[in-house]
Each structure stands twice: as structure tokens, then as C-alpha cells.
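U., I forgot to send this yesterday:
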Amino acid sequence: MERPPYEITGTNFVSEDVQDSASPVVEVSPAQPEESLGYVVHELNKPITVDGKEIRKIVLDFDSMSGDAMQNIESEMRADGNMVAVLNPVSSATYCQYIAARAAKMNVADIRRLSFKDNAIIVMRVQNFITN
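Result:
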């Protein structure tokens, strides 16, 4: 019987331990708020593995972010050699990937490893949050 997923402390993604299927189910976070514009749960069409864990859902918790996150994201993008669109950064998929990574408490490289479809959906969810 397949073990249900659990949430890892300090992250906003739901995973299953791929290496140890005998370990018990652990819930480390309180009941999750209802999905809203600022709190989005995305079921991946094609799960990925991060640090030995299969990721099947990503939680984008925009409500937990502050204005400092925007400045930090822009600094991180520049440090990684990416340009920041000055007039309309939300039109940049790269900028949206960085925001998604921050909202999901994940590494941007892992967001980029998502399938094209999952990545496009995540980018649109970020754009929808910012523009609404």
C-alpha cells in the first residue's frame, strides 16, 4: 500500500520519502488555510525528486512574503546573471520562477526542473497573484 505524502518542515512542498517507504507518516504543519489568491496548492502533472523526496504538490504561499522579498529576488537574479525587466518584471518567466521558488521555499533550480506544463502553470499563478 502506498504511503500518503507528508510535509517537510521549512518548505512548502509535499513529498514522499522515496528511499524509506517504511517510515511513518508525519504531519509537521498545522491545518493548511484554504486555497486563495495568496495561497495556492499546485498538484504537479509530473512529480520531481528533490533530495531523495518525490515532490507531488507545491504550495505557493505568497501571503507569507513581504516587500523585502521583491528586493531580495531582484538581487538574487542579478547575482545569478539574470536581467530584471524594469518596466514590467512580471512579464518575465524567470522573475516569476524566482518568486515561485521564494513562495514555495524551494531552490529556483528545482522550480526550473518542473515539466514545461507545470512550470507554465506556476508562472501563470505568480502572474495572476501579482496582477490581481
